[in-house]
Amino acid sequence: MTFHPDDIKAFKQKALQWAASFDVCCCLDSNGFNDQYSAFDFLIAAGVKAEAVAQAGDAFEALADFRKIHNGWITGFFGYDLKNETEALTSDNEDHLEFPDLYFFEPKHLIKIKGDTVSIESPAAEQIFAAIEQSTLHAPSIPAPLDIKSRFSKQDYIASVNRIKEHITRGDIYVTNFCQEFYAEDVSIDALGTYNRLNEISPNPFASFFKYHHQYILCASPERFLAKRGDKLISQPIKGTARREHDQEKDAQIKQQLRDSIKEQQENVMIVDLVRNDLTKSAVAGTVKVDELFGLYTFRQVHQMISTVSCILNLEVSPVEAIKNTFPMGSMTGAPKVSAMQLMENFERSKRGVYSGAIGYFDDKDHFDFNVVIRSIIYNAQNKYLSFQAGSAITFDADAGLEYEECLLKLKAILQVLNASIIPE
C-alpha cells in the first residue's frame, strides 16, 4: 500500500525508530544522492520471517539455497572474512564483535520511500503507517566523553607501512589496503541515536543502520560495492581522499589537487584494473568497460575519487555467484588480490569482520545493491565492545605519516558523534 505523509523527513526518522524496536532490522538511506542505479531513497526491513546465518566455508551456498526459497526482498550483510571461502585464506586475528560472516533475512515488514511516496509491504500496512505517524521522536541523548584506544601507535603504524613497502619493492604486491582498528571496551551507547548523529554529520549515499539482536552496524559509507540492474553489473570503487575546507576557494584548490594527484590516480587505476578482472568472471565476453575514470565527488566530510566499472552479466551466472566472484571488493584488498589479503592478515591486528564487508539487498526481480562497510561504527551491546576501523592504500610512493593522517581524516565524523578522543600511546 502507498501513503503520503505530510513531513517525509520526520516520517523517515520515526520509521527508523519504529524499526529499531525489533530484534532485527535494516535501514538503507541514500541521503538524496540518488543516481541512475538507485531504486529508492530510503528502505526499512523489520522483523524476521526467515533468515540465513552462515560462517565462511559454505556461506555463499547457504545464501543461494535461501534465495531459491525466499526470492522476494531480502536484506543482509557479507563479512570481509568470507574471503576465506572465496580463496585459500585464513583469519586468526582478534575478534571482539562476533558477527556471523553472512546474515540475510526476509522481513515481516518492508517500507520503501521514493520522493514523498511511502510504500509499505505488510499485512498490517495501515496500522504500521498510523503507528509511525502518531509516534513521538525520542529526544537524543548527549554522549559522555569517550576514550578510544588504538591497536597501533602512530610509530607502530608507520613502521608497519614501511615494512609493507618493502614487500612492494620486492614485487610481492603492487598496492594494498592496510587497516587499523580503534576501539573502546566496557562502553554503553545509544546505537540509534549515535547512528542518527553520524548520518546527520556525515550524510552519504550508502548509509545504513543494521541491528542484529545485540549487535549493530552504524554505517556512513560513500561507496557502492556492486549493484545489478537488469542484466548489468555496476561497481564503483573509491581510491583517493581529500579533506574539506570551509573556505570555498581553499576547498576548490584541495579538490583540484586530488584530481591532479598522480599518486591517487595510480591507486585508483590499479583498483579499477582489479575490479575489471573480477567482473570478467561473471561477464558476457567483451562487455567489461570503464564508464567513468577518476570521477570527483564531494561529500560533507571529504572529497573522493570514484570510478565506475560495469559489464553485462552472463546468464549462466546467478546473482549470488556474481557477488562471490567479486568479493571482497577491490578497493579494500589490493593487487594482486590474494597476495594482498594474505599479507594484510599478517600486518593487521584485528579481524575485520563486518568492516570492509557489504550491506544491501536483493529485490523481487533479482536486482541487488550493496555498499562497502567503511566509515562505520560496529558495536556489540552484550559485551559492550565498540569498534571502528580505517584503512588507506599503500603503494611504493606512499608516505607512511600521510597515510596515518588520512586514516584519521576518515574517522573525523565518527570521533565527533561519539564525543571521543584517541588516547595517545
Can you describe this structure?
- There is one protein chain.
- With 425 residues, this protein is α+β, with helices and mostly antiparallel strands.
- It has one domain: 4-Layer Sandwich (Anthranilate synthase).
- The protein has twelve helices and 21 strands.
- It has helices at 8-19, 59-69, 83-86, 125-134, 154-170, 191-201, 248-260, 262-280, 319-326, 337-347, 400-410, 412-417; strands at 2-3, 24-29, 42-54, 74-78, 102-114, 117-121, 146-150, 175-184, 206-212, 215-221, 224-229, 232-236, 238-243, 289-298, 302-312, 334-335, 358-362, 368-371, 376-380, 385-394, 420-422.
- It has a 21-stranded mixed β-sheet that branches.
- Strand 19 and strand 20 form a beta hairpin.
- It is globular and about 65 Å long.
- The chain starts with a strand and ends with a strand.
- The mean pLDDT is 96.
